[in-house]
Every structure is written in C-alpha cells, then in structure tokens.
C-alpha cells in the first residue's frame, strides 16, 4: 500500500470511529418532542416526517404531539405534558406567545433545551428560532402582488395576528405596498384558526360588491384554497390571489390559474435540522441554558436559523409537488 493510500485509509478509519462514537452517545430512552397545533395539516405532516427522519438517523425517540385543530390552550397542555416526560429537548411551534412564554422559561430553567420553530416566542428564554425569515417572505409576496396588480388595486389580507410569523409577513407586504400609493389595504381579517372565515368573507364580498377587493392575500396555509374555491365556483377571474405554503390543493389552484402564486416554506427542513441541533445541545450543553446569548459574541448557538423560502407559480410548481419532494 502506498504512503498516500495508507494516509487515506487512516483518515477514513478515523472518520468511521468518530461516527460510531457519536452514534454510541445516545441512550435508548433519549426522547425529543415536536409540539405544534393543527398537526393534521399537510404542512405539519411534512414537519413530522423531518423530525422522524432525524430521530432515525440519531437513534433516538421522537414524539410529535399537539392538538388536531388550532387550539392554543391545547398546545400549551401538550407542551406541559411533554415536559413532564423529562425530554432531552423540545422543538416548539408557538401559536400564542403570551400563553407559552412562562412554560418555555420553566423548561429552560429545568435544563431542557427548547427551540422555537415556524412561529416564535421572542420574549421567552427559548434558545433560538428556526424557520422562515417571515419578513422577507412578506417582501417576496408583496413584490409579486404589486406586479400582478400593476401598481393599482384594493387588497384584503387573511391572517392570525397573534402569531409572530404572520405579523412579520404582513409587515413585509405593507412595506412593499407602501411604494405603490394606488394599492390600498382595505381590510385585514383574523380567521382565528378557522379557514371557513376566509370562505364566508369572500362569499359575502362577491355577493354584495365585487369591486370592494381586487386581491386576496393569505398569510397562512389554509385560507388560500378556501378563497380559490369561492372564486372558482362563482367563475370570478379578475381577482389576484397570493397564498402561503405548498399543499397539494394550493398547487392545483395555481395550475388552474385561480391562485397566482404561493410562498413555499421548508417545514421538513425546520424539524429535521431542529432535532439535530437539540441533540447537539443535549450532549454538548454550554453552561446554563438561560444565559443571555443574544449579547454574547461567542454564543454557542445562533439567534436565528433561516431555512429559506421560494415563490411558486405556474413556471415552477411541478418541482414543488409534495409527492416529488422526497424522491
């Protein structure tokens, strides 16, 4: 064996030994939780898949828990129950920060790493946030909306203002639209976790005065298909719809030309990377978890992990079909 081949073999063997040692550090009882609400949605099913894949890679237990509907109190209860099981770490989607901040701080004080995902609780002591740069997502959607409206029109938003991620998206949209004085935001509707509110609101508008609104912007995943269903059933073709996320129904409505575009996120990536980071924090804990790392130039964790976004329309939607995403 040549000298260089010997070196290459030793490097490979060393890498395998390190890998084996890393795998051996896990206890069979080591358990991580992903806590969210509305977990039956395609968005959260993709997140659950990423969480489970990461757990399989690490050889740890993974539990995905939370209410089937949009219920902040039930999500809080799921988080409290997860904490009672003494987990190695928790990845948490925060639909109501005011309700969960105390519980997050309690977990951190108990030495349980908590990372927020998709929607944040910035006033809590969570270690950091992983997910979409939602302000940038709003800018991205706003640019496309202004283009579709050709600089003029009346816009309605569907949102849930308690969620920090949706508030950041709306802020991004508003900043872009402020550059077009002839585009006006006429109404911001709180759907309160119920997409039927979007369906009923659009039905009411079309039944009274179609000229009230030229564009409907949906800042969360469910409202887009409700708006599209109403417009399609009434054969309305002169309205712009900008949606959020890439469930199959939304992509179908883009294919049909009812939804102009949607902003895609990466819940699978959020959950998979989130679990790997929780695992590293559990095994390589850097001092106290409740330290103020935001002001530390040598902080062992980031403040924010941006998993990226993409604008999807007819030109690229086939690349984002859920059935193709993991091939």
Overview of the structural elements:
- The protein is α/β, with parallel strands linked by helices and 327 residues long.
- It has 2 domains: 155 residues, Response regulator (Rossmann fold); 144 residues, Response regulator (Rossmann fold).
- It has 11 helices and 12 strands.
- It has a 6-stranded parallel β-sheet, with helices on both faces.
- It is elongated and about 60 Å long.
- The N terminus is likely disordered.
Produce a short descriptive summary.
The chain is of the alpha/beta class. About 45% of the residues lie in helices and about 15% in strands. It is elongated.
Key descriptive features of the protein:
elongated; 327 residues; 12 strands; Rossmann fold; 6-stranded parallel β-sheet; alpha/beta; 45% helix
The CATH topology assignment of the largest domain is Rossmann fold
CATH architecture of the largest domain: 3-Layer(aba) Sandwich
E-strand count:
12
Mean pLDDT over the full residue set: 90
Report the sheet with the most strands, covering strand number, pairing sense and barrel closure: 6 strands, parallel
Give the SSE map.
Blueprint: H1 3-24, E1 31-35, H2 42-58, E2 61-65, H3 72-84, E3 89-92, H4 97-109, E4 114-117, E5 129-131, H5 134-149, E6 153-159, H6 164-177, E7 183-190, H7 196-208, E8 215-218, H8 223-233, E9 240-244, H9 248-255, E10 261-264, H10 267-283, E11 304-306, E12 310-312, H11 322-325
Parallel strand pairs: 1-2, 1-3, 3-4, 4-5, 5-11, 6-7, 6-8, 8-9, 9-10
Antiparallel strand pairs: 10-12
Helix pairs in contact: 2-10, 3-4, 5-6, 7-8
